[in-house]
Write a structure and sequence with these properties.
This protein has 302 residues and is of the alpha+beta class. It has 10 helices and 10 strands.
């Protein structure tokens, strides 16, 4: 398969005749636990968490331009292009490296917004990784992760592409290898604003530090859960239902709720009995991001 793969778009697109490098995944993440352990003077929260990828992803495609313009061709309702992390990431990389290249970007959006799956941060990381290669910028992972941190605290873990134990504001990453179960992920029909949850006066901000060994032994919870449940009854109801079948946990600040299962069949059997109108999907936990494999293929000339 050529690196300049096909990717559907309206025929009226200004770059419809250009060759797109397609199939660049932006995987979702789950927070296997999330403890808020303090707060910095600048308002950022200090945390402990484990980020793990799942095999559910947005997919991006890129067509290089010689006019220096950064354009998002896909319309995303409620997300103006100028505010989109995808566009902001491309412009940040362009400014950092001084490249005169531009790009047209298409997004096949599969991850819900406001769900706690990290879709926006993952999209931004995929832009940084893909364009660093396609533009020939030559930045290493450390430089890309540092650039990503200026866009959001979750971006570096997606850039590095390894499941990680995270501390600080989420930027201090240590590779970790948790189990890779099958997850049932429930998607309540609400958008949870991260900023609102972190500003909530009732949010617990003094959870004691735990060790990686304690987490691997089963310790950990999500400090945001009580706040989200109180403000979004749909999330509370989804958690209560899933808790009848397995340990249910909020990812990030929500709204998505997940539970682990030993095999795909068990997860799908539970999903089949979910309440009417509740969206859900089954995905496998992954400690290595598929973005790393796509980058390897691109470097090999695939």
């Amino acid at each position: 398969m050529s690196d300049a793969g096909s990717f559907s778009s309206p025929s009226s697109s200004p770059s419809s005749s250009r060759s797109f490098s397609a199939g660049w995944p932006a995987p979702a993440k789950l927070n296997r636990f999330l403890h808020i352990v303090g707060r910095r003077a600048d308002g950022y929260h200090l945390l402990q968490t484990v980020f793990q990828f799942i095999d559910r992803a947005d997919t991006l495609a890129f067509a290089l331009r010689d006019d220096g313009r950064i354009e998002r061709e896909t319309d995303l309702p409620g997300v103006p292009a100028e505010a989109d992390l995808v566009v902001r990431a491309a412009r940040r990389l362009q400014a950092e490296t001084g490249t005169r290249s531009g790009v047209s970007i298409r997004i096949d959006k599969q991850l819900p917004m406001g769900g706690g799956l990290g879709g926006g941060s993952s999209d931004a990381a995929t832009v940084l990784v893909a364009l660093n290669h396609l533009w020939g910028c030559g930045l290493d992972d450390d430089a890309l992760a540092a650039l990503g941190l200026t866009l959001g605290a979750d971006v570096p873990v997606f850039v590095r592409g390894r499941a990680a134990w995270a501390e600080g504001i989420g930027e201090r990453l240590t590779p970790v290898e948790p189990d890779e179960p099958w997850f049932l992920v429930l998607v309540p029909a609400v958008h949870v604003a991260t900023a609102a949850i972190f500003k909530a006066p009732e949010l617990t901000r003094d959870s004691p530090l735990i060790t990686m060994r304690a987490f691997l032994g089963g310790a950990g919870h999500n400090d945001c859960e009580a706040v989200v449940h109180a403000r979004h009854p749909e999330v509370a109801a989804a958690t209560a239902w899933l808790s009848q079948h397995t340990t249910a946990r909020l990812t990030g600040t929500g709204a998505c709720v997940f539970g682990a299962f030993a095999d795909e069949a068990a997860a799908r059997a539970v999903m089949a009995g979910r309440p009417a109108g509740l969206e859900a999907f089954v995905a496998r936990g992954r400690n290595r991001s598929p973005l790393l494999d796509r980058l390897a293929r691109a470097r090999a000339g695939d």
